[in-house]
Design a protein that fits this description.
alpha+beta; rod-shaped; 44% strand; disordered N terminus
């Protein structure tokens, strides 16, 4: 019983002495002692510009208004920390011994001004001439810094971070809670960021935190939780920014997560996304991702990528995909199918090509199939390079329109948007190629050829109306839909199809009009030639198709041209009898001339082989002059 009384008496005496010491020691005295110790150990000056008062509960220490903490010498005159109110907690045991050990710092509405120098050292790295803190060696030992704060609480903080040589980044309404109970142990930190209003939570664990602050690489684990998604990093990192480890990310709604992080994403990305990669990041802004796996909806890509983070990032990647479908993404960006009605014409909506200037890139992509919402590709290998607002997409080759395409397409937005390309193709289906790119599917067959084109403008309509270029194609068996040539020649009716055995043509494009003069189509029992204009910009055509039929057992040829005029969707197709009659008139005229020549040749005793090649008028005149001379000589009595 005496022992219990003695213990209780000792505890009471201790509390009395502590209360007396606290009451006798002014708050300003504690604050000055803490400030002096901080400056001695770190070289940073802590100043109080407002009221100082002592607190006993819930924190033993002082509260101060209008507090500033000086910056590193190289970081400029602006303080590293400003706070409307700062609470400093101290250890009661050390305080009873006349020493001040800071156990807690909390701030209301603080502003942090953070920066790094050319060596990658942050202004938050502090050092001074003081002795090492208990429980650890000094900075040279790499264990613990002279100053240790067991807990930090920041509420409603604003942050300005300026990495050396880069534009500063600013954030507002940031909350931070940091717990560091063991000077040689792990720090647990919880940060709430609000880059776009919605809270984004970061929970991190940093092992050997004192060594981390001293510039050593430490183990790091961090979880980022945002509306719609969550990410996790496990690995190692240093205070200057370098890190390596495994990064994973998953989102049920990537669009929602992107908006919460302050990123602009198209509406089509409102779907599930998963990312996993082994990452390495260096302090100079280089990110390497290996064993990369990315899932977006039903699409999956694997491979590797390297990113140099700067004002205009540089990306290098090698990716492999299976069956990819990005048709939803193209539709969300306002893409219209090429097969829109001729009445509506090509879309005149301005094309936003600003994405060409966001980054430089070299990406190799192979896949089993790809749906884009416009052109669909089979198993292909593509190479995309982007440099200073100019993108080049190479087909190496690409399976397209049922055949193979090699060449490249270029989009240039340096001085206004222009698109062009040069491609060779083989085995493509004409109905697919013309249908998916130009909305015209009346010509069917398998073809090979070459195409070169260039257009400019800020809408699809403007580009199509400015197209120039050239090309040629050859096709085997196929057919035209919309007219039956034999029926047209017999009765002038429309409808049906015309089957051909071979088709060849070359063409030139100027001002959005494709012109052809040498179309040759071989059909069963006859052949056909064609020439005219196809309006790529106006989506119309004016074409003369001239079939020739040789009558069985005769040398006579019957030609009844077919005139095709109007829009692509509803052209007017009918025989051009005026052209047919003109051809017959020309034949009759030529036949009459031949008969006259033959008769004159016989009358004038000319060689029938050479007569047609002579000018009969001159021959006739010469004969008349000769006959007149002969008659005059007879009259004069000459021989």
């Amino acid at each position: 019983m005496k022992l219990i009384i003695r213990v209780v008496s000792a505890l009471v005496l201790t509390v009395v002495l502590l209360v007396a010491l606290v009451l006798l020691l002014p708050g300003e005295k504690i604050a000055r002692l803490a400030a002096d110790q901080l400056e001695t150990q770190t070289g940073r000056k802590l100043e109080f510009g407002g009221k100082l008062r002592f607190t006993f509960w819930p924190t033993l220490g002082v509260k101060a208004d209008a507090v500033t903490l000086s910056n590193a010498d190289w970081a400029g005159p602006e303080p590293m920390l400003r706070a409307e109110r700062l609470t400093i907690g101290v250890s009661a045991a050390e305080l009873m011994q006349g020493d001040v050990r800071i156990t807690e710092v909390s701030a209301i509405l603080p502003h942090l001004n953070l920066a790094t120098n050319a060596d990658g050292i942050g202004n938050w790295v502090m050092g001074g001439g003081g002795a090492a803190a208990p429980g650890g060696s000094g900075p040279e030992g790499g264990s613990a810094l002279p100053l240790r704060i067991e807990a930090v609480e920041l509420a409603g903080a604003s942050l300005r971070y300026a990495a050396h040589g880069q534009d500063p980044v600013e954030m507002k309404n940031v909350d931070l809670s940091l717990q560091w109970p063991d000077p040689d142990g792990t720090v647990n930190a919880r940060v709430t960021l609000r880059p776009a209003g919605e809270p984004v939570e970061v929970d991190a664990e940093i092992g050997t935190f004192a060594a981390f602050l001293a510039g050593k690489v430490s183990s790091v684990g961090a979880t980022v939780t945002a509306p719609g998604g969550k990410g996790r990093f496990d690995g190692h990192a240093g205070i200057s920014g370098e890190a390596s480890g495994r990064l994973t990310f998953g989102a049920d709604d990537l669009l929602q997560t992107g908006v919460a992080l302050g990123m602009f994403l198209p509406d089509a990305l409102a779907q599930k996304a998963v990312l996993g990669a082994d990452v390495t990041y260096t302090a100079d802004g280089r990110l390497a991702m290996r064993d990369l796996a990315l899932e977006l909806g039903a699409n999956r890509l694997t491979g590797a990528a390297d990113v140099v983070i700067k004002e205009r990032p540089s990306i290098t990647a090698q990716l492999r995909g299976g069956a990819l479908d990005f048709s939803g993404l193209a539709a969300a960006q306002g893409g219209a199918p090429a097969s829109g009605s001729a009445a509506s014409g090509w879309p005149e909506t301005p094309i936003d090509a600003s994405a060409l200037g966001l980054a430089d890139a070299v990406v190799d992509l192979t896949f089993d199939s790809l749906r884009t919402g416009g052109v669909n590709l089979g198993a292909s290998k593509l190479n995309l390079s982007v440099e200073q607002k100019r993108a080049v997409l190479k087909f190496l080759p690409a399976s397209m329109f049922g055949g193979q395409v090699q060449g490249q397409v270029v989009a240039n937005n340096r001085g206004g948007l222009s698109v062009g390309g040069k491609m060779t193709f083989t085995g493509i289906r004409l109905e697919r190629a013309l249908g998916e790119t130009a909305g015209y599917d009346r010509l069917n067959g398998e073809a090979l050829g070459e195409l070169e084109f260039l257009g400019s403008g800020h809408s699809v309509a403007a580009i199509m109306q400015s197209l120039s270029g050239k090309g040629w194609l050859e096709a085997g068996k196929g057919f035209f839909t919309g007219f039956d040539l034999e029926q047209l020649m017999r009765s002038g009716g429309n409808g049906g199809s015309t089957v051909f055995d071979q088709l060849t043509a070359s063409f030139a494009i100027e001002g959005g009009n494709l012109r052809n003069q040498d179309l040759l189509v071989l059909l069963k029992g006859f052949r056909a030639e064609g020439n005219g204009r196809i309006g790529l910009g106006a989506r119309d055509l004016d074409y003369l198709f001239s079939p020739q039929i040789v009558r069985a057992g005769r040398d006579q040829v019957l030609t009844i041209p077919v005139r095709i005029r109007g829009s692509w969707d509803n052209p007017d197709i009918r025989p051009d009898f005026s052209q047919a009659l003109q051809t017959r008139i020309d034949d009759v005229e030529q036949e009459a001339k031949d008969r006259v020549r033959q008769k004159l040749a016989e009358e004038l005793n000319l060689d029938t082989e050479t007569a047609p090649e002579q000018d009969l008028n001159d021959v006739l005149r010469q004969r008349i002059e000769q006959e007149a001379r002969d008659q005059l000589l007879k009259l004069l009595g000459g021989d």
